[in-house]
Design goal:
It is a single chain. The protein is α+β, with helices and mostly antiparallel strands. Helix content is about 40%, strand content about 20%. The protein has eleven helices and eleven strands. The strands form two sheets. It has a six-stranded antiparallel β-sheet. Strands 1, 4, 5, 6 and 7 form a five-stranded antiparallel β-sheet that branches. The longest helix has 26 residues, at about 220-245. The protein is elongated. Mean pLDDT is about 90; it is low at about 1-10.
């Protein structure tokens, strides 16, 4: 077993925190989970700590998800994923890493693997209130909480929430905050979700990777960012549908995206997708609204037409440009 490379306390030292050196004290609440339907793996977290997502959240498609907090040690993330990728079950990976860590009683770590096997550890020296609860395919954990009801509330919310993995993990975080959350308050939050199987391209396998590094209401902001990410996922599906000539699917996906964001650029690419699917008349309605609201969209449409990004004949391009109001 590869040891975690961090200095341990001096032999007989009554204060083990002394041996932690400059390790980040990430007192927080988090959840790791595998969705039984989609197979997606995820981790979500909130803390009174700057940029908590840069330390706590680890996940890899087809491998597992990890949260490492309390006296945070990122090596649990890297080494835990390495072990699970090699076929080691999450409980065995965590127990092996704990044996090699002289500061294990300061740690709080949770792991779930691609088969839904889960394990969690809360060291005896994690600052109260601290604890975890392992359920089927998930674990919730927290330390330095206002009260010991935080992690049971998280588990209950996750198990009874509706929606996809992201929505259910958000419900768990909201439940933690409703129970008092971090004794010190709130500052940052993050969510990382990956697909059930790896394509070998991590940028494709990542479903959600959103972070709120510093905000007075990090969970509110996290939910807003998750919503925007959903919009972009609908847009990508819509673009693919238009490119394949599936206009009905493209329209449905863009409608879903536009319900989630008021970003006018989504309307622009919706119109371009319609043009490229041969639906110029339908696209004209959108272009007319965009050009009337801001002539910069007209400039962008002209540039797209010059570079061949709208696959239609010159007469149709001119029809598009002609719907702009006169300057």
């Amino acid at each position: 077993m590869t040891p975690i490379e961090i200095a341990g306390p001096a032999r007989g030292d009554p204060n083990p925190y002394r041996g932690a050196g400059g390790a980040p004290l990430i007192h927080t609440y988090s959840i790791v989970a595998r969705d039984p339907e989609s197979g997606q793996l995820g981790v979500a977290v909130q803390s009174h700590y700057f940029a908590v997502g840069s330390i706590v959240t680890w996940a890899e498609a087809g491998v597992g998800a990890i949260a490492t907090q309390s006296v945070g040690e990122p090596s649990y993330g890297k080494l835990g994923l390495d072990l699970m990728r090699a076929g080691v079950a999450a409980p065995d990976a965590l127990s092996g890493l704990l044996v090699a860590d002289r500061l294990r009683e300061l740690r709080q770590v949770a792991m779930v693997d691609a088969h839904g096997r889960v394990s969690a550890h809360t060291g005896q020296l994690a600052i109260a209130e601290a604890g975890h609860l392992v359920g089927e395919g998930f674990s919730v954990q927290a330390n330095i909480m206002e009260r010991a009801t935080v992690w049971p509330a998280m588990a209950n919310a996750y198990q009874h929430a509706c929606g996809d993995l992201a929505e259910r993990m958000l419900a768990a975080l909201d439940a933690a905050e409703a129970e008092g959350g971090d004794l010190r308050g709130r500052q940052s939050a993050a969510m990382l979700i990956v697909d059930a199987a790896s394509t070998g391209r991590p940028w494709i396998d990542c479903v959600f990777d959103v972070r709120v590094d510093d905000h007075p209401l990090p969970l509110v902001e996290l939910r807003r960012l998750v919503s925007i990410r959903r919009a972009f996922r609908h847009k990508a599906t819509g673009d693919a549908a238009f490119a394949n000539g599936s206009v009905e699917v493209g329209e449905r996906e863009y409608a879903a995206a536009e319900r989630l964001t008021d970003d006018a650029e989504f309307r622009l690419w919706h119109a371009v997708g319609l043009v490229n699917a041969g639906q110029v008349d339908d696209a004209l309605k959108i272009f007319r609204e965009l050009f009337a609201a801001d002539r910069r969209w007209l400039e962008l449409a002209e540039r797209l037409s010059r570079q061949g990004a709208m696959f239609t004949d010159p007469a149709s391009i001119q029809r598009i440009l002609d719907v702009a109001p006169r300057a």
